[in-house]
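Could you join me in thinking about how sequence relates to backbone shape in a protein? We need material for that, and I hope you will provide a protein of your own picking. Label the sequence line and the structure token line clearly, so we can match residues to local backbone shapes. Would you write everything just below, so we can both look at the same thing?
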Amino acid sequence: MVVLENRVAIVTGGSRGIGESISKELAKYGVKVVINYYSSKEKAELLVEEIKELGSEAICVKADVSKEEDAKLLVDAAMETFGHLDILVNNAGITRDRTFKKLTGEDWRKVIDVNLNSAYNTTSYALPHLLESDAGRVINISSIIGQAGGYGQTNYSAAKAGLLGFTKSLALETAKTSLTVNAICPGFINTDMVAEVPEKVLEQIVNKIPAKRLGKPEEIARGVLFLCRDGEYITGQELNINGGLYM
């Protein structure tokens, strides 16, 4: 088991939804958190204060991680503030759902940029620092949609599936080091993103889930905690947290 106190983590998209829960969960165990946000400044600042109340440290950094220069600024801010980096959680994500016939090039590129290219951007700058840690972690938040597909989600599914390939390949390249690289594939989680789904459609989704409920953001956060604390010999894997919907 890895002692997490005084470790440093970057959580992209870390101010709301699943990212917020991940930031809080790590902070409970003494991790210093760098909360990345793009538009949710107020929520990010409130979360920093919450984490300080938990007895840990945090900063929030505005960065569009789909852009290489912003990703560099994010990693630089973490290093300048805390001096080292142990954990990178690539969580930033958006949806622009359309059937393929209606999907525009902009819809495709934006989702790929935010959900997939951002992982390259952040990891490329973070990796040298993570390799210096005795328990470095890269955790990519993929999705059940990247495994099973989703109607009207070719862009999102392609990006999340791409994260899985990225995870396995980077894990192979770093397996001889103390760095582990894994993915978490959430099912349908009770977040603002899922709340946008029409009520009748959401009811149909829940009926298909063997557990008969939506997941909670905290359940994904505990998966991240497990990989950070107890995952020394786990790398290149997909941790499915989906209530049995995809096996």
